[in-house]
Each structure stands twice: as structure tokens, then as C-alpha cells.
Specification:
1 helix
Length: 105
């Protein structure tokens, strides 16, 4: 009985050691998972901040382009309006000349 008792004691001791190793591995795995989750959350926050910054930059560039297009359109419209006025004034002058020649001998 002494040998079987010693064998059982040795097996119990090995089982306890294995249980301790399994528990240590479980704790280490939990810590690794927690660290990975924290790192993933940090990466996600950084990516979201970068996306927001890029969106703001894009919106600013787009607003500048829209403003430039509006200014060009306004300048073009003013130029066309001036040309139309000049042609209308020339035609009015021609009409006045034509009327004056017809009325005055």
C-alpha cells in the first residue's frame, strides 16, 4: 500500500502542477486578449480620427473649389452682360442714326 499511496500522491502532485500551469496559461491568455482588444480599440480610435480629419480636409478643399467656380461664373456672367450692353448700346446708336437720317434731310 505504501507504493500505491506514493504513486497516488505523485499523481495528485502532478495534477496540481498541471492545474496551476493551465490556470497560469488561462490568465496569460486573458491578459493577451485584453491587451489585443485595447490595442484594437486604440487603432480604431486613431483610424476614426484620421477619417474625420480627412473628411474635414476634403470638405474644406471642396468648399474652396465651389467658391472658385462661383467666382469664375460670376466674372463670366458680368463679362457677358457687359458685352450684351455694349452691343445693345451700339445697336441703339445705329437706330438713332438711322432715325435721324430718315427724319432730317
Amino acid at each position: 500500500m505504501d507504493v500505491s499511496s506514493r504513486v497516488l500522491s505523485e499523481l495528485a502532485s502532478r495534477e496540481a502542477a498541471l492545474d496551476a500551469q493551465v490556470e497560469a496559461a488561462r490568465v496569460q491568455a486573458q491578459q493577451t486578449v485584453a491587451a489585443a482588444e485595447a490595442q484594437a480599440a486604440s487603432i480604431l480610435r486613431d483610424a476614426e480620427a484620421q477619417v474625420k480629419a480627412m473628411q474635414a480636409e476634403h470638405e474644406q478643399a471642396l468648399a474652396g473649389e465651389v467658391q472658385q467656380i462661383r467666382e469664375q461664373a460670376a466674372a463670366s456672367a458680368a463679362e457677358q452682360a457687359q458685352g450684351t450692353r455694349a452691343r445693345a448700346e451700339a445697336k441703339l446708336g445705329q437706330a438713332v442714326d438711322t432715325i435721324m437720317r430718315a427724319v432730317l434731310p
